[in-house]
Write a structure and sequence with these properties.
single chain, about 425 residues, alpha+beta, Immunoglobulin-like, 2 domains, five-stranded antiparallel beta sheet, 6 helices, about 25% helix, globular
C-alpha cells in the first residue's frame, strides 16, 4: 500500500500540541462550561443516550484543541481532524468529531491570515482521486462563514495529479487554482470526499507561507484561542444538532442548498429527526440529481456518527445500490431488512438523518435533488418495497461490513 498521506510529521506535531492543550487550565474550564451548558439543554431530551454524552464532550474539546493547535497562520501546517478515537504511531488519539461529521470526508485545516501569501502543493495518491472542496472560512463562531470556495472539479491539475494552489489577497483574475483572502479569514477547510474507501485516499498536501511575519504563537495563546472557540462554538453546534433533532418525528425536510447556513455552497442537503419503535422502519426514496458525490448518514442525539466502521450507518454513492429504475431506495431500521441499502440505527431509537448531494457538473445537471420518506411497519417491508430494490443475504451483508472496516482502517496506517 502507498504511504498514507494523512500520517505526516505535521499531523503528529499538531496532535502533540492539542494533547498538551487539553491539560491546561483554560481547556479544563472550557470543558466544565461546555458540559454544564450541554447538560442544561440535552440531559432530558437525550436521556436515552446518556452513555454517549461523556465521549461527545471529550471529542468536542479535542476538536477545538486541534483547530487551535493548527491555528498559527504565520507558521501553517496541514492537519486532519473530525475523526473517531483511534490508535496510531504507538499512541491513542482522542476523537474530534463535531456537529454531524461525514464518514466519507477527510477533513483537514490550514490556517490562513488576510495579508499573508501562501502556496499549497498537492498530489493525487490514487488512480481515481476524490473530489475536494477548499473553503476559506471566517473567524466567526456564531455561524461558519465561507469567504471563498475552490472546487477540484474546476481546478487545473497536471497529468501526474499534482497541483499548486495560491492563496493571497489579490483577485483571482482567471487563475483557476487561486483563492482570494478577505478580512477575517482564519483557516482553509479541505474536504476530500472518498467514495471507494478501499482504493481512494486523500491528496498529499503541504503549505508554505511566502511572507512570514513575526514569531510563532506560544502555547498560552493557543490555549486561550481553543477555550474561546470551544465556548463560542457551542451555540452553533446546538443549532446543527437541533436542525435535525428539533423537527417533527420522522419528517424529512426537502433538499436545499447548504450555503445559506455555513455549509458548502456547492452542496445540497436535507435532515430529519428519526424516531423508531422496535417494529417500525422508514423507507427513503431519492434521486442522484447528477451529483458526483452523495451520501446518507445517521448520527446520534448529539449529532455524532454511529460506529460507521462496523455498521452501515452511512452509505455513499459507491456503497449504495440503485433500484432498477435508476433512483434509490433505503431502509432505516433497527434490524437488518435484507435490502442492500440498510441504514443501521445501531439500536438507537432516536437518530438524526442527513443526506448531501455535491460535486455537480459545472454546467449544472438540470435535475434538482428530491427525496421522499414514509414510516411503515417492519413486518410490512416486503409488501411496501418495490420489486426493483436490490436485496442482500446474510453472507453478502458480512462481506459489505468486512469491506467497510478494511477501508476505514486504511486511514490509520501510520507508515
Amino acid at each position: 500500500m502507498p504511504l498514507n498521506p494523512l500520517a505526516t510529521a505535521s499531523q503528529r506535531e499538531v496532535e502533540d500540541r492539542a494533547l498538551a492543550l487539553l491539560q491546561r487550565p483554560e481547556l479544563e474550564r472550557a470543558r466544565t462550561i461546555a458540559t454544564l451548558l450541554w447538560q442544561n439543554v440535552a440531559a432530558w431530551p437525550s436521556r436515552d443516550q446518556a452513555d454517549r454524552f461523556a465521549n461527545m464532550i471529550d471529542e468536542y474539546l479535542f476538536h477545538h484543541a486541534m483547530r487551535a493547535a493548527n491555528g498559527d497562520a504565520n507558521f501553517p501546517l496541514v492537519a486532519s481532524f473530525m475523526k473517531p478515537p483511534h490508535h496510531w504511531f504507538g499512541r491513542a488519539v482522542p476523537g474530534s468529531r463535531w456537529a454531524g461529521d461525514s464518514p466519507d470526508f477527510i477533513y483537514r485545516t490550514i490556517p490562513i491570515a488576510h495579508g499573508g501569501r501562501y502556496e499549497i502543493r498537492g498530489t493525487a495518491t490514487c488512480a481515481v482521486p476524490p473530489t475536494v472542496n477548499y473553503s476559506l472560512m471566517a473567524d466567526n463562531t456564531a455561524a461558519p462563514v465561507t469567504l471563498a470556495l475552490l472546487d477540484s472539479l474546476a481546478m487545473d491539475i497536471a497529468a501526474d495529479g499534482s497541483f499548486i494552489i495560491t492563496v493571497d489577497e489579490t483577485p483571482t483574475e482567471g487563475r483557476r487554482n487561486h483563492i482570494q483572502t478577505r478580512p477575517g479569514a482564519e483557516f482553509l477547510m479541505c474536504r476530500d470526499a472518498l467514495g471507494d474507501w478501499l482504493t481512494q485516499s486523500a491528496n498529499t498536501l503541504t503549505v508554505t507561507r511566502l511572507n512570514p511575519d513575526g514569531g510563532p504563537k506560544d502555547e498560552a495563546d493557543m490555549a486561550r484561542h481553543a477555550a474561546k472557540i470551544a465556548i463560542d462554538g457551542l451555540y452553533y453546534t446546538y443549532y446543527c444538532t437541533q436542525s435535525g433533532a428539533g423537527q417533527a418525528p420522522n419528517d424529512i425536510r426537502p433538499p436545499m442548498s447548504s450555503g445559506a447556513f455555513g455549509g458548502m455552497a456547492t452542496q445540497w442537503g436535507t435532515k430529519g429527526n428519526i424516531c423508531l419503535e422496535d417494529d417500525a422502519a422508514i423507507i427513503i426514496r431519492c434521486n442522484a440529481a447528477g451529483a458526483a458525490f452523495r451520501n446518507l448518514t445517521l448520527t446520534d442525539a448529539f449529532h455524532m456518527s454511529i460506529e460507521y466502521w462496523r455498521r452501515t450507518s452511512s452509505l455513499n454513492m459507491l456503497q449504495m445500490a440503485p433500484d432498477e429504475d435508476g433512483d434509490f431506495t433505503f431502509v432505516i431500521a433497527h434490524r437488518d431488512p435484507g435490502v442492500h441499502n440498510w441504514l443501521d440505527t445501531g439500536g438507537l431509537k432516536r437518530t438524526i438523518f442527513g443526506q448531501r448531494w455535491q460535486a455537480f457538473p459545472p454546467e449544472g445537471s438540470g435535475i434538482a435533488p428530491w427525496m421522499t420518506a414514509r414510516l411503515v411497519r417492519f413486518a410490512d417491508l416486503k409488501r411496501e418495497l418495490s420489486d426493483g430494490v436490490q436485496q442482500i443475504d446474510a453472507e453478502g451483508r458480512q462481506e459489505q461490513l468486512k469491506l467497510r472496516q478494511a477501508g476505514f482502517l486504511r486511514r490509520y496506517v501510520d507508515n
